[in-house]
Amino acid sequence: MTAEEPSLSGIRLRCPRCRTDIGGWDCPACGFSIVINDDIARALPPESIAHYARFVDDYERIRESEGRGSESAAFYLGLPYRDTSGRHRGQWRIRARSYDYLARHLLDGAGRGNRILDLGAGNGWMSFRLALAGYRPCAVDLLANDSDGLGAARHYRTRLPALFPRFQAEIRRLPFADEQFDAAVFNASFHYAEDYEASLREAMRCLKKGGVVIISDTPWYSRQESGEQMLADRRAAFRRSHGMAADSIATLGFLTDERLGRMEDALSIHWDVHRPWYGLTWAMRPLVAKCRGRREPSRFRLYVARKSAGS
Predict the structure, then answer these.
(1) Measured distance CA(279)–CA(310) in Å, rounded
(2) Residue 298's pLDDT is what?
(3) pLDDT at 170
(4) Would you give the distance in Å from CA 279 to the centre of its chain?
(5) So what's the pLDDT on residue 4?
(6) How many whole angstroms separate alpha carbon 171 and alpha carbon 162?
(7) CB atoms within 10 A of CB 165
(8) Radius of gyration in angstroms for the set of CA atoms belonging to the chain, rounded to a whole number
(9) What is the spatial distance between Cα 32 and Cα 136, in angstroms, rounded to a whole number?
(10) Amino acid 1: pLDDT
(11) Beta-carbon count within 10 A of 261 CB
């Protein structure tokens, strides 16, 4: 494929390996090239591919065993409002309510035409919805497969004048030059970070002055111990199902107020916390768990921080 085929919509690039701003797909400083394959810009340096190889393999295996993805285009076109597979309707209801709140209250349509980074885009459903609403999204994910990764975004071509740009890239080493996006959304993905501060700092780097970073659908716990128990339960379940541990990458897995506070101090930001209504059953989960002597369940909020003029 030629370098012109993916629509970059004026996005300026930066080498993810040596961090040099580049005018095309090739870095003159270190020789790294962003390769276009299946209309996806592959911006993972070899060392990153090696680092994430087992994590990607484990993650894809988990998602396949959970029945993610579909052979039907209708499945992708209906997300997040309809899960035509019927396998994860509860999760998609949460995603839909988070997205609606984000679109109505945090983006609010005032900046239609704004450029938005969709970090952890998966199959691209959020970028699709944002593009339909008039925004200019750019989808980023480690996964590029055709069922649950960036390759699945091919199903949106029939509904959009041009498909949004897609980059297979590491969130800590984004292939974008400084200060060109109006918002960056961690789309049910921030908890997969190995280093919260580094990931957040990289997203902030790509934002214009006054731009916002939004963390959506990452589990929050009031106690560190609850989050650690959740991760232990998840590892045990994977071992039972697959006969091996899924711990090749030490992802942080969840948020607490203490973790959020450390990010505020390190980056000199302020989190605005938003609490969408996910329904009475969801709201009652902590009380039910306490009455039954179970571990504290996760809760979801939306966290918003603005890049100041002096950042």
Answers:
(1) 40
(2) 95
(3) 96
(4) 24
(5) 43
(6) 24
(7) 20
(8) 19
(9) 27
(10) 37
(11) 11
How high is the pLDDT of residue 3? Answer: 41
Q: What six digits make up the tokens of 185?
A: 């959304």
pLDDT at 208: 97
CA torsion sign, 154 to 156 to 161 to 165?
A: negative
DSSP-assigned letters across all residues of the chain: --TTSS--TT--EE-TTT--EESSSB-TTT--BPEEETTEEE---HHHHHHHHHHHHHHHHHHHHTT---S-HHHHHHTTT--TT-SSHHHHHHHHHHHHHIIIIIITTTTTT-EEEEET-TTSHHHHHHHHTT-EEEEEES---TTTSGGGGGGGGGGSSSPPPEEE-BTTB-SB-SS-EEEEEEES-GGG-S-HHHHHHHHHHHEEEEEEEEEES--B-SSHHHHHHHHHHHHHHHHHHHSS---SS-----B-HHHHHHHHHHHT--PEEE-----HHHHTHHHHHHHTTPPPPPB--EEEEE--TT-
Question: What is the per-residue pLDDT for 184?
Answer: 98
Q: Can you list the domains of the chain with their CATH numbers? A: 13-306 (3.40.50.150)
- The total number of residues shown for the chain amounts to 311
Within the chain, what is the greatest distance between any pair of CA atoms? Answer: 62
> In this structure, what are the phi and psi dihedrals at residue 269, rounded to the nearest 5 degrees?
-125, 175
Is the pTM higher than 0.90? The answer reads yes
Residues of the chain with pLDDT under 70: 1-7, 242-248, 311
